[in-house]
Amino acid sequence: MANLNPKHNTIVLLVIYFLFTFETTIASYDDDKTLNVIDFGAKPGSEIDSSEAFLAAWESACSTTTPSTIYVPQGRFLIGKVVFKGSYEYCKSNGITIKIDGALVAPSNYDDIGNDGNWLLFDDVNGVSIIGGVLDGQGNGLWECKRSGKRNCPMGATNLGFTNSKNIVINGVTSVNSQMYHIVIDRSTNVKVQAVRVSAAGNSPNTDGIHVQLSSFVTILASNIATGDDCISIGPGTTNLWIENIACGPGHGISVGSLGKEFEEAGVENVTVKTVTFTGTENGVRIKSWGRPSNGFARDILFQHATMVNVQNPIVIDQSYCPDEKGCPDQVSGVKIRNVMYEDIHGTSASEVAVRLNCSPRNPCNEITFQDVNLTYENNKQAQASCIHAQGITSGFVQPNGCF
Ligand SMILES: *[C@@H]1O[C@H](CO)[C@@H](O)[C@H](O)[C@H]1NC(C)=O
Ligand SMILES: *[C@@H]1O[C@H](CO)[C@@H](O)[C@H](O)[C@H]1NC(C)=O
Questions:
Q1: 270 C-beta closer than 6 A to ligand 1
Q2: Catalytic positions
Q3: Which Pfam families is this protein grouped with (predicted)?
Q4: What confidence tens digit (pLDDT) does each residue in 144-159 have?
């Protein structure tokens, strides 16, 4: 390539230039239309509320079956509680992309959205993608209220919620300082969460990174979650969930549960949690159920390739959850746990008991497998395992051992 003559170079450049212009010309006549929120009245700068402008852009995107992109340019846009409604009544489109270069900022007064449950909620939508951007819940004030033990603090709002929705993509989104949960996937199917960053203080209450419930075929990939509660929590009715390539910490780890709070409860089935690094977290991989009657269950769960770095409780099943010791008559969980595999789980525990399976005396855990588990306590000291009402097998090198 070094001796290409200048004439050739010019021709090559011209051809590239021509192709490029041709491409962009095509793109702008593409049937995908772009709606800039600025054109609907949104104003960056944190004083002017842009909620109405965002809703107007959504309505415009929804007015046609033609796919469209709602574009949010650089800048910080103050947004109040907003519900983006789908279903054919409100939205004809099954292809709306929200491309965000800037940040959406919640009101700094936590009372404004603190009792609404959700800040940005997508309800009954189909084919929505959110690409990029920052969602800033400004939760610090509310966390402080909760931590100070005041009684009249609102519950708080989830930064980003999807309910009753399908065919959703959340890609490259950064969620910071949510008042409560960061991202909630509820009653939805076929949801792909990728390259998401969650960031909230390690002592922020109930700020779970991603919570999934009553949903099927949710995939969470290549994400980095640092928060004050579970990095990912997996609630009742979650099936066919795939989690891979996650960095978790600080936080409470990845948790199936809490399950079995209700007597009639949908179970959790077919969950894969693969290639996760837990750093300084309270738990690593956990299954947790209330110590009370329930017909719930958790089965066919694989925890594979996990690295624990100074984790308080790397492997936990706790079936006697009962905060404040209230409403758990006999402390016995009805939730049935079966076929849980721990494969290639290694690293360091910050406490001596690295493996703790505390299963229900009425419904012992069944078909638990430990394969290639190597957890040490502090500087290569021997860690312990403590198991009750658990039945299973080990294979390969398993340390600490002694459960089965
Ligand atoms: C389990 O879920 C995955 C998606 O996470 C899916 O590909 C697989 O087919 C499911 N397995 C069964 C047995 O349903
Ligand atoms: C288990 O982990 C310790 C600490 O990292 C390491 O020294 C040891 O070689 C590992 N054992 C096996 C069998 O992998």
A1: yes
A2: 252
A3: Glyco_hydro_28
A4: 999 998 889 999 999 9
Residue nearest (by alpha carbon) to ligand 1 atom 10: 240
User: What pLDDT score does 397 carry?
Assistant: 97
Q: What is the pLDDT of residues 240-260, one digit of tens each?
A: 999 999 999 999 999 999 999
Whether the pLDDT of residue 276 is over 90: the answer is yes
DSSP 3-state assignment of 404?
A: coil
Say if ligand 1 is within 6 A of residue 404 CB. Answer: no
Count of CB atoms within 10 A of residue 109's CB? 11
Cβ–Cβ contacts within 10 Å for residue 64, how many? 12
Atom 7 (ligand 1): residue with closest C-alpha? 240
**Is residue 279 within 6 Å of ligand 2 at its C-beta?**
no
- DSSP 8-state symbol, 37: G
Residue of minimum CA distance from atom 3 in ligand 1: 240
Q: According to the model, what pLDDT value does residue 326 have?
A: 86
How much helix, strand and coil, in percent to the nearest 5, is found in the chain?
A: 15, 50, 35
For residue 241, give the ligand 1 atom closest to its CA. Answer: 5
Ligand 2 atom 2: residue of nearest CA: 374
Span 6-399 CATH architecture: 3 Solenoid (2.160)
* Ligand 2 centre distance from Cα of residue 240 (Å): 33
pLDDT band for 17, please (50, 70, 90 cuts): very low
Confidence of residue 330 (pLDDT cuts 50, 70, 90): confident
What's the pTM? 0.92
CA-240 nearest atom, ligand 1 = 2
Parse the chain into domains and list their residue ranges. Answer: 6-399
CA distance 384 to 126: 48
Check if 397 has its Cβ closer than 6 Å to any atom of ligand 2: yes
CA distance 371 to 403: 13
